[in-house]
């Protein structure tokens, strides 16, 4: 299968690309920069130059593929609404290119903001329309199940961790390093789900190969880890104290991450495991922290 992957050189996308290649698939990867293109070419990936702001180019690459894994997203927190509209336009063009083909379209989504936890695969996303979070792209994609596309929403944990991670946990660690204290908000009872990068990549490949149209699958290995425990693990690794940060001071202490760190999110992957035969085998988040995955400055 020739799979068009957006975000193919990113944190999750590079692992997904490696997983697909290892299992005998061909990959066409979207690349915005010369460096990304060179990295993909070195793996034997067919490079597609462009970005999410070129829906016609995305549609062309999708039409020439046997399936699409859409992982790219413009994480511009200064214009998140604009990023959502760009996402919706990109997804809409890609789906139109696949209509009537029966080919798979996998969409990266998330667990945050989809309802009260623990979230299950049966819980629909409340985000509908161009002005919703991420442009309402999950519902847009799943609505195409009756248009001859096999759409699958892959909901990733808040942290997809591993050696080299530059995401949320890396940022939390850098803040703790800079401030000399590893903080959590209020009583630290809010939770984050987690999954190792290798397990997330394998889940994407399994969903591409066999998830039914209209499926939601959860890349969740640990359902919900209390934020105070994550902060404590970071503090132990850095040798700094752990402390509560009042919610009123969260933005001043954590910056833009304060809006996410205090949100309670948990999710189940029980039905995903049954559907795909997926079993996480990678390290836990605490094992990665203790092993030094976040020991160096981000």
CATH architecture of the largest domain: 3-Layer(aba) Sandwich
- What order do the strands of the largest sheet run in, or round the barrel if closed? 3-2-1-4-5-6-10
Note the gap between the termini.
Answer: 36 Å
Query: Ranges with pLDDT <50 over ≥5 residues?
Result: none
Number of helices: 12
Overall spatial form: globular
Q: Main beta sheet, described?
A: 7 strands, parallel
- Just give the CATH class of the largest domain: Alpha Beta
Annotated CATH homologous superfamily of the largest domain: NAD(P)-binding Rossmann-like Domain
The overall pLDDT, averaged over residues, is: 94
- CATH T-level fold name of the largest domain: Rossmann fold
Q: Strand-residue fraction?
A: 15-25%
Rg, Å, rounded: 19 Å
N to C succession of SSEs:
EHEHEHEHEHEEHEEHEEHEHHHH
Q: Kindly name the structural category.
A: alpha/beta
Which bin fits the share of residues in helices? 25-40%
Number of strands: 12
Number of domains: 2
GO molecular function, one term: aldehyde dehydrogenase (NAD+) activity
Protein name: NAD-dependent epimerase/dehydratase
InterPro entries: Epimerase_deHydtase (IPR001509), NAD(P)-bd_dom_sf (IPR036291), NAD(P)-dependent_oxidoreduct (IPR051783)
Domain NAD-dependent epimerase/dehydratase: 3-213
């Amino acid at each position: 299968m020739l799979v068009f992957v957006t975000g193919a050189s990113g944190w999750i996308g590079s692992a997904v690309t490696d997983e697909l290649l290892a299992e005998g698939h061909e990959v066409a990867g979207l690349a915005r920069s010369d460096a990304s293109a060179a990295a993909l070419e070195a793996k034997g990936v067919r490079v597609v130059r462009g970005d999410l702001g070129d829906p016609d180019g995305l549609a062309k690459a999708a039409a020439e593929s046997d399936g699409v894994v859409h992982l790219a997203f413009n994480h511009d927190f200064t214009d998140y609404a604009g990023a959502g509209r760009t996402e919706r336009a990109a997804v809409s063009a890609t789906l139109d290119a696949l209509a009537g083909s029966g080919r798979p379209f996998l969409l990266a989504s998330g667990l945050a903001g989809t309802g009260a936890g623990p979230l299950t695969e049966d819980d629909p996303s409340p985000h509908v329309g161009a002005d919703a979070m991420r442009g309402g792209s999950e519902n847009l994609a799943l609505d195409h199940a009756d248009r001859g596309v096999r759409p699958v929403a892959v909901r990733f944990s808040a942290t997809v961790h591993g050696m080299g991670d530059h995401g949320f946990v890396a940022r939390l660690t850098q803040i703790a390093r800079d401030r000399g204290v590893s903080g959590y908000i209020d009583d630290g009872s809010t939770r984050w789900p987690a999954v190792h990068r290798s397990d997330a990549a394998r889940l994407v490949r399994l969903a591409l190969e066999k998830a039914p149209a209209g499926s939601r699958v959860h890349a969740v290995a640990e359902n919900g880890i209390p934020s105070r425990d994550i902060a404590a693990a970071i503090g132990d690794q850095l040798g700094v104290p752990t402390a509560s940060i009042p919610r009123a001071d969260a933005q001043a202490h954590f910056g833009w991450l304060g809006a996410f760190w205090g949100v309670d999110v948990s999710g189940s992957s029980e039905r995903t495991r049954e559907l795909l035969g997926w079993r996480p085998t990678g390290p836990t988040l605490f094992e990665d922290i203790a092993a030094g995955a976040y020991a160096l400055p981000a």
